[in-house]
Structure formats: structure tokens, C-alpha cells
Amino acid sequence: MLPFETIALTGEEMTTRPLIDPALGLIDVDSPRSLVSLEDGTVSIVIPAHNEEETIGEITREAFRAIELLGVNGEVIVSASACTDATADLAAKAGAHVVESLAGKGNAMTAGIKASGSDIVCLIDGDFRYLGDEPLAVGLVKPILQGIAHATIADLYWRPIYPQLWLFGFFAPLAGRVFPELLPALGSTPWSGQRAALSELWPAELPDDFTSDLAILLHWHDLNIRLRPVATDDWVNPQRPKPDLLHKEFTLFADYALSHERIDSTQREHLETWFASVHAHMAEYRPDQDDPQQFERSLLRHALAELDRVAQPL
Question: Which DSSP string do the residues of 98-153 spell out, in sequence order?
Fold first, then answer.
């Protein structure tokens, strides 16, 4: 029989609870880390790029600087996705190994990862300009080299409102209900394309479009790896409208939840109604009228309330 403790509540009201050993989960600090250190590991920095001639030279040079700062042997691969400008030529002039891929970010990532030959692969978007003192790849790769993580994802300090609406309106409410174990591992920007992982952890195939970023996270969830967010500094990249992406990512995630039996087919149908309601609320945001943080909080409350109303007992 389990030992019990007696706890006084109010007046004569009493309750009993099982004792929890306070040492549960503690690790002997003198023991080595649970992951293998790769201090002498090799690194491939893969840069998916579609018509990024304005930034590709800078991004490529920063990737080489990251490898130098990490003190490892490495390579920089630019995966030119159906480029019609000078992206490939400028990347090659900057020293990158250039591979060609079909159109679509997922195709570009797949081609770049397949071309890599290192222990660790790091992805940095071809239009992503990082403003920190060190290249972003340094912070993403270092925890893996040190044996702290199997994979990392950039927890971006500054972000535009649209991804925040994605997080508060769709991902956090739904993932919190059906895959709560995901949220602590992802930081505040799970949509980020800036990430790194041991080479064997990357999926062999990905969706050909921008849903590939989410598909990678779900693949890593299946592998039950140690994924860690990495706090980052400011950054900028072009804001390119992707009007169909939100529903595509919702579909990918909801179908994943159904296939893993976290929801049933009826709940899956009800979630379509939930998404339509949340999406309509998102569309009410007006940058010249609404405070972003207040709107994010109102959106989160709306999304959670709609989950209770539409998709019970999710």
C-alpha cells in the first residue's frame, strides 16, 4: 500500500494524498549527460532559397562564419528552388555547394538535406537576416554538439503579428488539447523554419510546400526526441502572403491527431467548424486600431471557448 500524508484544509475537513518522493527524476550530477557529445562533429548548413538574389550572398557568408565560430568541419549547401534569378550563381560565388530542386520549400529542404553529408544539419531560410552578434546557426547547432539536445528550433524574439495569430488562434489551443506534450518543447514560434538536428532525424520526404515546417515537427514528435527551443535575437525577412497556408497546416495537424487517435472522426469534422470561427476572428484584426498583444489574448480566449462549444469533449 502507498504511504499517505494527511493535510489539513479548512476546519475539520481533511484529505489524504499519496506521498511523492522528492528525489524522483533527479539525475546524479556527477554522471555524464544522457546524450552523446559531438564536439568533433561535422555540420551542414542548408539554405532553401527561391529567387533570393538580394540576400543569398549575405546568408551564405554568415553560414560559413557560423561554421568557423563553431570550430567544426562543415559545408554550406544552397538548395535553389526553381530559381529564375541569380540566386544559384551568387551562392556559388560565395562558396556554397548549390543543388537544384523543384519549386516549393519542402522540395528545397528535402534536396538540401539529401545532399548533406554531416553529423548535424541546420536549416536557415535564404531570406532570413539575423541581427544577433553571432549567426543564428551557432546557437542552433551548439546544444547538439554539446550533447544537450537532439534537435533545436529558433524561439524568435521578435515576430510579426501573423505568425502570432497562427500560434494563439490555432496551434497553441489545439495542440494544448490534443498534444500537450508538444508545447513545452517548441517555444513561442513553432512555425520557425530555422532549426537544426542530427542528420538521421530528418524525414526522407516532406510535403512540397510550406507545410513542410510543421511536418518536420510532427515527425520529430513521433521519434520522441529531445527537442529544445533556442532563445534568439531580432531578425527580419520579407512578409509574403500565403493565404491558403493556415488551413493547410490546420488540416495537416488535425489529420495527424486523427491518425494518432487523439481525436475521433466526429471531432475531426467539428474542428472544421472551429477553424472557420477562429479564422473569422483572426480576420478582424486591424493594425491601425488593435493592440497586438490584447488581440492575441482575445483570440486565444475565443479559440479555447470555441473548442469547448464546437468540439466537446475534446
Answer: EEEE-SSHHHHHHHHHHH--SSEEEE--TT-EE-SSS-HHHHHHHHHHTTS-SEEE
